[in-house]
Amino acid sequence: MTLKSKLKNRNREYDIWILLAVFVAVLAMLRYFYALLGDYYTFLDEYPTFDAAVGFFKTGKFYKWDFHTESLTDIEYSRAWPHTLLLTLWFHIFGISVPAGKALSAVLGVLFILSVYYITYKIYDNYYVTILSCLFLLGNPSVTVVFRQIRMYSLWILLMVWFLYFVFMTLEVEGNYSGKNRISGFCRRNFNYPLQYVLLAVVSLIFCYVTHINTLVCGAGIILLLFYLLVTKKDKRYVAAAVCLGAGAALFGILCFLVSKGVNIPIVRMIYLVITSDNFIGQYDEQNIRYWNWFKNFMGNRAIMFFACLCVILAFIQRIKNRDKKFDFSLYSVFIISSSLYCFIYIFSQYYQDRYIIYIAPLIAITAAWGIVEAVSFRKKHFFPGVMALFFFVVVAFQIKTNFKEIYNSDDICHHSQVYAKISKDSIESPVAIAGYDFRDYYAVRELEDYVTTPFDRAHDMEILYEFAREYPQGYVAVETDKIYGITESMRIFMQNHSERIAGDGIDEWNIDVSRYHFLYPQKEYLEMFEGTGWESGCVTYSFRRIGEDTELRVSVDTSQMAENAKILFLSFGIFTENQESLPLCFQLVLPENASKGKYQYSVIVDKPCLAVELKDDCEVYYKDETYKELKLWEK
Questions:
Q1: What pLDDT, in 10s, does the model give residues 104-148?
Q2: pLDDT digit string (tens) for 332-384?
Q3: How far is Cα 504 from Cα 478, in angstroms, rounded to an integer?
Q4: Which helix (H) or strand (E) holds 433?
């Protein structure tokens, strides 16, 4: 073949790689940007990240921003500061908005796919491996969700794929120390590592670590690769690295021993306390099998994933006598994948989110693609890899179609703007009082003329609501539906059974539970029951009368029939209007503190003309020790 023919073939091959890169980039843009720019939030903690970036944008400080008061809050948020700075810069260019924040993650997603494309091209130089790797990632729901949310994971997984690549190249490629001085000679003999990759690996490690601490988990896989290269290649540089690693581990062990004996070594002491805490090491009988299930479901079908794993094993067997950079990188990926799965299944078993381990996703995709292509190429028939690539292209396309609703119309999406608009329409109070978790004032300022809020703390929620209601007796409790089991049980039972629900599960698909509360306090003067409409149920007597288009409801509670430490009585009424409508109402009756036992009266005006009122038998009593009891009214 002439030089001209070689150059022509090389240019043609280069053009094919460019066209495939454009194809993959377009697919990634369609996947990550589709239906992204709607002004909504998902529940997965995007708001703190967004708020912190806005706070830094406004003031240059790592504190969350309050859109209501247009001022910084006292909540510091310096976590994952590289992402906060990047998002702040993005806001300077495109303005502060939810769609802009999500668009940044989508752009990072496209860069991530192109990064995987480039790395597989450099390592494997195989069209099929490269395309399949990208397709497997584009078809994975966990990866897609990461690049559709305003969170640091979108930056982290992009940085991680480069960090792991730089580490591999550091260990795989030899350095080029051409100097003739003693230092160059010593490095050439004992530490012949490529300086450029060493620097890139260190810099990327720093940024990965400050973005997310789980970066350190991949250390076990890197050490395994080091020892594999030490055993198989017996190069002095691997021996030197192993000696340095052993010396570092020994030094750290000695420092930890000193800390255990009372010596104060600040950084080591912090790490030592984390490692030795009861919550650090998971129990072996409490394996977090969900990570293993996530791995098995990576391709959307366990049978296909098991087939890919089988192909990887066959590929290693085929390549064991002809090991090269491709073999080493695939083995390196297996080391990272397996050690990370082990850590999260056994050691960190008390935590679970697929985004915590998302950094191994590109390695799973790349290794699976390599294994499939290698395994089906044993016949030396050129059409075999192409046929398999086409097959998996169809499989991934089908997976994208089947998880379409899961990602783009996910039940996790919370429509805060619509909920606040509903609260605004429902409320007659000003300002509107809202208690709960994850209040999104970015949306509230657009829908509510004026409002006040108080956050729950997941420990004393009912007490917080009780104190909030002293100043704002009527208002709302709002909790993202997926987080309702994170609040205290008494508050959850109160919201679900003993309050007026206006949004949430069973009412709409906005994924935010909203309940209306009406705290009533005893009247200072004695109130007589209205004649002809009074009923008694245990310790409660009630009656009502029409006042024009309204209805006054009066309740008398005999506290002598209740426990000494009873604090709040939750009552539910069914009110039937002139239009034959059934109107469920709930009231929270605050019992007098440090008062003698006796009867106490409450009064409330209902803005509906009522024909009949029915008191429901079941109620809830909340006690001063923050416990509660659901009981029937006839129980004493």
A1: 999 999 999 999 999 999 999 988 899 999 999 998 989 999 999
A2: 999 999 999 998 988 877 778 889 999 999 999 999 999 988 888 765 555 56
A3: 9
A4: strand 432-436
- Let me know: does 92 contact 141? Beta carbons within 8 Å: no
- Among residues 8, 17, 7, which one has the least CA distance to residue 122? 17
CB 245 within 8 A of CB 238: no
Query: How many CA atoms does the CB half-sphere of 171 hold within 13 Å?
Result: 27
Contacts (Cβ under 8 Å, ≥6 apart) of 614: 573, 574, 575, 576
Scan for tokens 């409801």, then name that residue.
Answer: 553
pTM above 0.90, yes or no: no
Q: Give the CA angle between residues 377, 380, 385 to the nearest 5°.
A: 40
The answer to whether residues 574 and 610 touch, using CB atoms and an 8 Å cutoff, is: no
Q: Tokens 């044993």 appear where?
A: 378
CA–CA gap between residue 377 and residue 384 (Å, rounded): 6
Residue tagged 């420092």 (tokens) = 255
Distance CA 80, CA 102 (A): 17
Q: Compute the distance between CA of residue 79 and CA of residue 84 in angstroms, rounded to an integer.
A: 8
- Amino acid sitting at position 37: L
3-state secondary structure of 523: coil
Q: Report which DSSP code applies to 528.
A: P
- The strand pairing partners of 603, in sequence order, are 554
Residues with Cβ < 8 Å from 389, sequence gap 6 or more? Answer: 127, 128, 131, 132, 373
Q: How many helices (H) and strands (E) does the chain have?
A: 22, 18
End-to-end Cα spacing for the chain: 100
User: How is 113-124 classified by DSSP, letter by letter?
Assistant: HHHHHHHHHHHH
